[in-house]
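User: For a teaching handout, I'd like to show students what a predicted protein-ligand complex looks like in token form. I'll give you the sequence and the SMILES for adenosine-5'-diphosphate. Please answer with just the structure.
Assistant: Understood, here is the input followed by the structure.
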Amino acid sequence: MRAVLRIVLPIALIAALVGLWQIAASTGWIAEALNLEPFLVPSPAEVGDAIWNNRTLLWENTWVTLREILFGLLAGAAVGVGLATAMRFSRVLRDAVFPLTVAVQAVPIVVIAPILVVWFGYGIGPKVVIVAFAVFFPITVNLLDGLRAVDPEAVKMMRTLDASRWATFRRVEVPTALPYFFSGAKVAVAIAPIVALFAELAGSNAGLMRLIVQDNANLEIARVFAATVILIAIGVLLVGLTALAQRLVVTWR
Amino acid sequence: MRKDNSVSVAARGLSHSYGELRSLQRIDLAAADGEVVALVGPSGCGKSTLLEIVCGLREPSTGEVEAGGAAGATGRLAHCAYMPQRDLLLPWFSALDNAALALRNRGAGKAEARREAGALFERFGLAGFEGARPQELSGGMRQRVAFLRTLVAGKPVLALDEPFASLDAISRAEMQGWLAGALRADSRTVLLVSHDIEEALYLADRVVVLSARPGRIVTELSAPHPRAEDRDHAVTDPAFVTVREHALVSLREGAR
Ligand SMILES: Nc1ncnc2c1ncn2[C@@H]1O[C@H](COP(=O)(O)OP(=O)(O)O)[C@@H](O)[C@H]1O
Ligand SMILES: [Mg+2]
């Protein structure tokens, strides 16, 4: 019963809000209250029409932004996993590299995004770099914390069972660290779309943010809402898939 | 150092301290091949520390120690298997994969390691639970898997640290009978830490009583009926009761 309610209730709430908006927009209440032309306040039905009528254009730009997000996440995760593993194996490396990692992550993306556009142009390359830049840190820090959370008694037990350093890492430390890794991954997945949009804002020849900026200037408000709906769907999907992956991998909690 | 093939574990004048805190003082201890020696003493007197030293997980501050003929830490580590106080079964592995850990660590393939460890499940009363995760097992079964994991490592010396301390009285008595049977069938040199004198006297050939910290040896007692088939009979026998009283008196003296 509770399980059913947990699915039905949020859907009902969203449906109710969309319904309210439909009534408020189609009767012109919002436009009137804001003293605007009605076409500037599209109803959900009009947004749906905009998605359908512009599906090719929207899909082309979605595909660009989605690739920036996904490649950025993959690159950031690869760097994060590599750094955390290396720092776990070498104390010297950790002492040397960790402060640098903190400094790199503190570089404001607002500043480097336009520079990367100048250096590397308007393609998706610089966006991937910027997304990776923003997401590697939560993954590195969480994973490293997880690797260090290992029970020292379990390590002793492994040593008397003839485990090499690598065997202990892979059979005890990595499983211990997995829930921590997923905490980092959830943060990464939540910020990646925002960072990708921001990177497009700094200069791009395609992508949902570029489309939104253009459409806003041309008062194509229904299509701005359409792009926003797509971005929300991407965000929800990414968080949902990460949670699902965690449930499939971390089966012992 | 005198070499004697029948001596499996030996400590001579062994002392240890954690920084300023002195944990063990001039321990002389020997266990022959296939002998079970129990260590009893007040909590915090250094019993776990002593096991860790014998197993090569720590070095003594002064004195000598050897296990299976090896004096260095690496050599001792190669001859001893340590069963820690908490069972420390890995929750991400099945009971079978936990039991097979040592084989996997030595490079055996998954199928081969499972076959070898799985062959013992029946004898340990664990048949049918190979695929169960540790969190699905009862306390007694978890201890048996942990013991099996220690045994599968194939080391001549077993160091068991309060293996049944976490169990209720009934399953503890049951598990003592079970461990006695397992050791009758597969004889190893065992150092057994216990805070239960009855358990120590029933399972061991010899019981070493340690004083409060820093732990030193107060007395050594021979057990009258080590690992007897009929446990209930053995522990109510007058000879057993007399030795138990003796041990209790020494323990109380040492605790002062
Ligand atoms: N890693 C450690 N560092 C410092 N002190 C320790 C450490 N391990 C144990 N001790 C202390 O050493 C003493 C002996 O510990 P332990 O060998 O675990 O005793 P026992 O197993 O007999 O209860 C205790 O007082 C304990 O607090
Ligand atoms: Mg202890």
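For the handout, you might add this sentence: Chain B touches chain A at residues 52, 55-57, 77-78, 80-82, 84, 86, 88, 90-93, 101-102, 104-106, 133, 135, 149, 153, 155, 159 (CB under 8 Å).
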